Amino acid sequence: MRIGFFDSGLGGLIIMNAASRALPDHDMVFLSDTLNVPYGNRSPEFVYQATQKAVEFLFKQDCALVIIACNTACAIALRKLQQNWLMENYPDRRILGVIVPTLEVALTKEHTRIGLMATSATATSDVYGQELRKLNPDIKLTSQPCPLLVPMIENDGRQWVGPVLESYLKPLVKQDVQSVILGCTHYPFLKAEITQTLAHLGSKAELISQDEIIDEKLYEYLQRHPEIDKKLKKGGRRSYYVTDLTQAYQNAAQEIAGQTIPFIKTEL
Ligand code: DGL
Fold first, then answer.
1. Full-prediction pTM beyond 0.85?
2. Which of 95, 216, 226, 243 maximizes the CB count within 10 A of its CB?
């Protein structure tokens, strides 16, 4: 069996690449719902249905374990899928998210004021806040919806991102946050710009980025769950599925992976 990675768009590739470095021999499957990206500005009903279909697709590709790399899909769909649908339909499979592992790493910094940049859907869901309160109710989380960032990244608009970032980061700097969680798979693309804008606003806040977290967390999870790890094939094979394929996506993926990725177009 294999490990599946799901994202609405490009960012999940960065996460799977990082996981590939930690677990080079494990067979992995990537799925990006490029036809429906961005999820961040859609209704919770849409995001839930789309995420369920995506996870089911990956289970049908023989994945024993699916990592939902998309924060929006995690915020809206993960708990409901884990609690109801998974137990009824695939009780021997597992679905993991990225929100709790990210918060666990954020807490190791021992900061008391944390900022969150996320899509509107993730910020509105307050799932980061709910999970953080369970882990440590004394920490103050300031969430900032950043609805323009994903469309700007997907449409090659990085050169105009400066003023947009400034207006999104000002409220976090005003709260004097000590770290900023990049709560969206796309935001690691903007690490340099975010760091620069924070410095420009006089903040030394540290960035907490999932491409530096999920690989190690997945490795540790498999160490703790040898019963799952022993089901996983270790031939180092990779498969990549998308629900729509454009030249722009292909080019951006090549930039991330450093090689042409043989995407297979599929329907969910
Ligand atoms: N992948 C999504 C996330 O991590 C962002 C892109 C989208 O809006 O679909 O929240």
1. yes
2. 95
